[in-house]
Every structure is written in C-alpha cells, then in structure tokens.
Design a protein that fits this description.
There is one protein chain. The protein has a five-stranded antiparallel sheet with strand order 2-1-5-4-3, sandwiched between helices. The protein starts with a helix and ends with a helix. It has a single domain, classed as 2-Layer Sandwich (Beta-Lactamase), CATH 3.30.450. It is of the alpha+beta class. The protein has helices spanning 4-10, 43-61, 64-67, 102-122; strands at residues 16-23, 28-33, 72-76, 80-87, 90-97.
Amino acid sequence: MTEDIIDKMLNCHRKVRCAMLISEEGEVLKFACKPNVDIILTKEDLQRYAKQAAARKKERESWNEKMGSVECILAVREKLCILVFYWLNKIILLSIERLAPLAAVEKAIEVYTQHKRQAAKQS
C-alpha cells in the first residue's frame, strides 16, 4: 500500500511529472516518472535531494509541538514545483510542471488525504 501512493500521485493530474518515495533516512524507495519527461536531476542528484528532504523533515518536526505537524510543503522554482508530503515514516516528493501548478497540488492533496484515511482505518 505504501508504494501504491506513488503511482496514484503520479497519475492524479497531467501536470505531475515525477513522484518519489523516500525513507526517513533519505533512501529513495521508489521513483516513477511519466513518459517523455526530461528528468532534470541525475540519479546521484535525486539521492542527494532525498537525503536533504529527510534532514529537513527532522528539522521541521522540532516545531510540531508549537505549530502542529507538517503535512505538505510546496516549493516553487523557476523550472518546476516540488510538493513534499510527510506520510507515516516516509516522504513523498512530487515534481510538478511550473505553469499553473495549483490544480495539480489540489489533486495531490486529495490523493494524500484519501490514502491517509485508508491507512488509519487499516491500523
């Protein structure tokens, strides 16, 4: 079920380019990309980015008591947008086309919320 969310996220909207599942230690567990998408980062870059995402998650958790836990972060860059979800003990990272990304963000949040509810019911 954990890796299924990557396929659902990748296909939730036409603007989503790639999806990655990362362990809390920063290991890339699954990477999926839509056909005919130019991948900007090398495999080594993706692994390094995954490690940094895991480190940022740990840093952000230090604020949970005062602000509540983080569910997602959106970074808007010149070439693309990156949407990050913290789910269970994993990190889900989406690459979204730069132009008009908000509809894709909304769809991804819907998929995340549904998946989170399903996981809670199974627990």
